[in-house]
Automatic annotation (TrEMBL):
Leader peptide range in chain numbering: none
Metal-binding found in the keyword field: yes
Name of the coding gene: G2e3
Region (Disordered): 287-318
Organism the protein comes from: Onychorhynchus coronatus
Pathway assignment: Protein modification; protein ubiquitination
Domain named HECT: residues: 665-731
Protein name, entry field: G2E3 ligase
KW Hydrolase (keyword) present: no
One GO MF term: ubiquitin-protein transferase activity
């Protein structure tokens, strides 16, 4: 740059750097704006944004005679606007010395001694709060790097965060992130040296940024799509035409998949149903298309979907809902039949929402659920590699790590073999269980051990630690291998990876920026905090002096000439401690995760795998259990009533009116108290039989339920059987 002499090309700090070959001229935009002896005398398209080339050359000659009061070099084109102050400096030097440049009106510049400051009331607290842009802590101090909102009492920001937001939002969208004030907020930020470009927001300027909004949603989201040509197939004016949710438009179904007679019928997705159910607006029912079919043949087809906003106060209406559910498979061919009325004493009063949906699900949970479904499908693809040849592992549950390590390292072990588990520490006798339940229990114990082992550090979200003995014994490789095998063979997912660890595995450590929360060592974290929140150059240098040996050992020593240099120092410390220090364990762990192709799939589908590796499994709900089990039912009235009782029982469990939990039900049927990432094989089913008590067939993952006359009989038998069975197993 002809004005500051720097070669830096940093638009965020110095503005756009423009080069004009015909004039042998390169200049930073901010250097040009703030120079004291030049004005925009040309039109907008002339010269450099209105600055004439001849004027720029004159300004360069004038500045060549002035020495910078900061770097002591010639070419200082900017002077302090205070009349008695004779200080001159380059724009980059002024930034480093914390001068204020006002990008408005006369483009005034103030040196470090005369710069404007924000006023603070004596009563205002001197604590710390979150910067509402980066969500990191910011102390309530009158510092150059910290700015206070003029319109909100408790809104504080980092200067750097505000500048980045202003560059992105532009003059039309830059406003207070707390109260949305624009005029007062922009005026104060301009006074304190924030540059606000006079253009539209960056997201508005992106070409085709909203192109996706012009596309209609064309996908069938029912549990079981009946279309042989796939969920995305859409044939207008046929039963394979896709009908979108009339409320949100972001979910769809083929007409045939939801038993819709015509495109004009109302249809809502289950997410929208839950919203209406929560607000109690079932009665706000629009046109009911079922009336048409009732007029036609005088009967109500059991496959017809009733409006979700119709009050379901009778077992008959519940039965219609159950029979149209995609999770119920009819073994007999059903013809249209009349309404079936049960005795009033046998009716179960319940609504759709508590049975099928968790009322408090957020959009975040909904997104996680979709990602976990994607992971399930991916893992099923990987499981194709597993053959029928079996490898038996002798496992001591009291010494899970060493026995698992011995099993994984035995000569005949192969990740592609079917794994059988033999627990050897059951009251001096071997207990062999070749079922998926035993295998899931083994992997559950193994994941718990890994989470609390010396291989990882942190509270809940964990990173790799540095265990030199584990490096020598290649334990990080074995840990990665065990996690990969657990995912593909039907075990639980870890769920304790930090975002930083996951990003290092997927994108590579060189592309990851760790945060302070990733530091598990209390002393190191305290050192980083002292440097990060130092409010003066002297306190920063004192802190560096106190931890000189640590910084030297970490290779993070650097010259500190200004308070803003602390940010780079903090970044160096975090990268060293969280990433560079454990680079060898990380690479070994990555190699282990390559087992069965898991790491490759993680890199191809990072968002999906993040949902199972960085988040604990979601809490079981009535909707989850209902969706998990496929009900095999016929047109038998008693079996239909049994399905009603099953749904009502799930509602009682969810509301806490039962001594049994959803985990107990799952354990009773499958031998596992949680749902594996890959799902169950075979898929859990329910059968209604003429038996006295419920039976959990763990070999087939089948729950056999008795047909009873009343709901209370059904509930009593469920609780008695499940509770006693699990109690005996625990004993």
């Amino acid at each position: 740059c002809v004005l500051c002499g720097r070669t830096d090309d940093c638009p965020e700090k110095y503005g756009e750097k423009k080069t004009f070959v015909e004039y042998s001229l390169t200049v930073h935009y901010y250097c040009l704006l703030m120079s004291s002896g030049i004005w925009q005398r040309g039109e907008e398209g002339e010269g450099v944004d209105g600055f004439l080339i001849t004027d720029i050359k004159k300004e360069v000659n004038r500045a060549a005679k002035l020495k910078c009061n900061i770097c002591k070099k010639k070419g200082a084109s900017i002077g302090c606007v205070v009349p008695k102050c004779k200080r001159s400096y380059h724009f980059p030097c002024g930034i480093k010395r914390e001068c204020i440049f006002q990008f408005m009106e006369d483009f005034r510049s103030y040196c470090w001694e005369h710069k404007p400051v924000q006023t603070f009331m004596d009563k205002e607290s001197r604590g710390a709060s979150q910067c509402t842009i980066c969500l990191d802590l910011v102390e309530h101090l009158p510092a150059y790097t910290i700015l206070k909102s003029p319109c909100c009492k408790n809104a504080w920001f980092h200067r750097e965060c505000l500048q980045y937001q202003a560059l992105s939002a532009g003059i039309f969208f830059f406003r207070c992130t707390v109260c949305n004030n624009k005029d007062k907020f922009q005026k104060e930020m301009l006074r304190m040296g924030i540059y606000i470009p006079e253009r539209d927001a960056s997201w508005e300027l992106e070409e085709n940024a909203y192109q996706d909004l012009l596309q209609c949603y064309q996908h069938c989201d029912t549990r079981r799509c009946l279309c042989k040509k796939g969920r995305d197939y859409n044939e207008p004016d046929s039963k394979w035409e896709i009908k979108r949710c009339q409320c949100c438009g972001s979910r769809g179904t083929h007409l045939a998949c939801s038993s819709l007679k015509s495109w004009e019928q109302n249809w809502e997705c289950i997410e929208c149903r839950s919203i209406f159910a929560k607000s109690g607006n079932y009665s706000r029912k629009k046109k009911r298309s079922l009336a048409t079919s009732e007029k036609t043949d005088g009967t109500t087809c059991l496959m017809e979907e009733p409006s979700p906003k119709t009050p379901r106060q009778s077992s008959g209406s519940q039965r219609n809902f159950l029979l149209q559910s995609p999770k119920i498979m009819y073994q007999n061919n059903l013809s249209p039949c009349s309404h079936l009325e049960l005795p009033a004493s046998n009716r179960v009063t319940m609504s759709l929402s508590p049975l099928m949906l968790n009322r408090n699900w957020s959009l975040r949970q909904k997104h996680l659920r979709e990602q976990r479904r994607e992971v399930c499908n991916i893992l099923k693809e990987l499981k194709v590699q597993v053959n029928t040849k079996t490898t038996r592992l002798n496992i001591n549950a009291d010494d899970i790590w060493n026995s698992a390590l011995k099993g994984f390292r035995q000569r005949n072990f192969s990740p592609t073999n079917t794994i059988e588990i033999n627990f050897t520490n059951c009251k001096n006798r071997s207990k062999t269980d070749t079922s998926a339940a035993s295998k899931h229990h083994f992997f559950h114990l193994l994941m718990l051990h890994l989470q609390n082992s010396s291989l990882f550090e942190g509270s809940s979200a964990k990173n790799l630690s540095l265990d030199l003995q584990a490096v020598e014994e290649n334990l990080y490789f074995e840990a990665g291998k065990m996690i990969a095998v657990s995912l593909v063979h039907g075990g639980p997912s870890p769920g304790f990876f930090s975002k930083t660890l996951f990003d290092c595995l997927v994108y590579g450590p060189e592309n990851v920026k760790p945060a302070l929360e990733d530091v598990a060592d209390v002393d190191v974290a305290q050192t980083v905090k002292m440097i990060k929140y130092a409010n003066s150059l002297s306190s920063l240098q004192s802190t560096i002096h106190d931890c000189y040996e640590f910084l030297a050992a970490a290779g993070c020593l650097r010259p500190i000439t200004a308070l803003c240099d602390k940010n780079m120092l903090v970044n160096d410390i975090l990268i060293h401690h969280v990433i560079k220090r454990i680079i060898s364990p990380l690479e070994s762990f990555r190699q282990g995760l390559k087992t069965l192709g898991v790491l490759q799939k993680m890199q191809m589908h990072p968002d999906a795998f993040s949902s199972v590796l960085c988040h604990e499994p979601g809490r079981l709900s009535a909707e989850t259990i209902c969706d998990l089990f496929t009900i095999h039912s016929s047109s038998d009235v008693k079996e239909v009533k049994g399905a009603d009782f099953w749904m009502g029982y799930l509602q009682d469990v969810e509301s806490g009116e039962s001594v049994v939990t959803f985990e107990d039900i799952l354990l009773f049927v499958t031998g596992s108290s949680s749902i594996p990432s890959i799902g169950f094989d075979p898929e859990p089913t329910i059968k209604f039989l003429h038996i006295r008590y419920p039976i959990g067939n763990r070999l087939l993952n089948c729950l056999e339920l008795p047909i009873t006359n009343t709901y209370q009989q059904f509930k009593n038998k469920m609780e008695l059987t499940i509770r006693n069975t699990l109690r005996v197993e625990r004993e």
